[in-house]
Amino acid sequence: MSSTPVIDVERLNVTYGDFHAVKDLSFRVERGELYALLGTNGAGKTSTLETVEGHRTATSGTVRVFGQSPRDRRAVRPRMGIMLQDSGFSPDLTVKESVRLIGQLTQRADTVERVLGVVNLTRKAGTKVSQLSGGEKRRLDFATAVYGAPELIFLDEPTTGLDIQSRDDLWDTVDKLREDGSTVVLTTHYLEEAQQRADRIGLMHKGAFYREGTVSELTQTLPSVIRFSLAAPAPALPLEARRESEGTFLIETFGLQKDLHTLLRWAQDHAVELRRLEAGPTRLDDVFRALGTD
Ligand SMILES: Nc1ncnc2c1ncn2[C@@H]1O[C@H](COP(=O)(O)OP(=O)(O)OP(=O)(O)O)[C@@H](O)[C@H]1O
C-alpha cells in the first residue's frame, strides 16, 4: 500500500538575489524514516529545510508536507516539532515556564512534567534559562521537538554541545518516537551519527545532491580504503598510495581483499611495522574530504 510521503520536494529552487542557493532539488521522506540532510558549508541545507518547515517561500518548485503546503501553517505546523540550533527562549523564564510555552505554541496535547522527564530537566524545572549550561539549553531546545510526540521531527545539529550520556539519552528518545511512527529529518556534522542512524542520506554540495540514497548506496560507488602509518623508513610500497599526514598513507581500492593481502605480505617480507592499520569501506568522512578537493 503506497501512502503519501511525509515530505515531497520537487525541483526546489531557492535564490537570494542572483545567488542560486538550491538548484532543482528533489527528494522524498517516507513515513517512519530517518532522513539525514548533510553537506558542506553553504551547500543549501538550511535554505532547503527552512522551505520545508514553512519559514521560507520557494523561488520555484513544489514542497509538500503531509500532502499540503508547509506555508499552510495551521494545517501542518501542529504536526511537526522543530529543534533549532538555538530556540531563543527568554533568559528570564524558568525551564518549566519555557516548556509550558512550547505547549501553548504547538497546541499539542502533552504534559509539562512528562516532557521535562523526557529531556531530563525535571531537576532544573525552576531554574532560569539564563542559568542553564550549554548542554542543558540544548536539551531544552530538544523539548520543542518532542512536546506532544509530533509525527514529523526536525533535528538541526541536535547533539552539538551534549556530553555522551545526554547524546545517548537523546537518541534513545528519538528511537522511541520512531517506534511510535514519527518521521525524523536530521542535519548533523557528526557524520558517524548519520551513518549509524539514518535510513537515507541526502548529501548536498553547492545547492544540489552530490549523492542521495542509503549509506551503503552512497559508499558502494566509491573505492574502499586502506590506511596505515609507517614507524620507520621503509622500502617502496607495493601499491600506489597517497601520503595523508605525518607518515600516514591511504590506498584507495576496488579490490580490498587482494590489495590488503599484497600489503601485508610486503610488510612481512620486509619486516615493516604497519601502525594504526585500518581497512574497510569508504566512510562518509572520506566522501566529504573528496568533495573538499573538488
Ligand atoms: N539570506 C541570504 N541572503 C543571501 N545569501 C544567503 C542567504 N541565506 C543563505 N545564503 C547563501 O546561500 C548559500 C546556502 O546557505 P545555507 O545556509 O542554506 O547553507 P547550509 O548548507 O545550511 O550551510 P552551513 O552548513 O554552512 O550552515 C550560502 O552560500 C549562503 O551564503
UniProtKB/TrEMBL annotation:
PROSITE patterns: ABC_TRANSPORTER_1 (PS00211), ABC_TRANSPORTER_2 (PS50893). CDD domains: ABC_DR_subfamily_A. Keywords: Antibiotic resistance, ATP-binding, Nucleotide-binding, Transport. Its main location: membrane. Residues 7-231 form the ABC transporter domain. GO terms for molecular function: ATP binding. It holds the Pfam family ABC_tran. It is a peripheral membrane protein. Transmembrane segments: none annotated. It is found in: Cell membrane. The keyword Cytoplasm does not apply. It comes from the Bacteria. PANTHER family: ABC TRANSPORTER ATP-BINDING PROTEIN. This is ABC transporter ATP-binding protein.
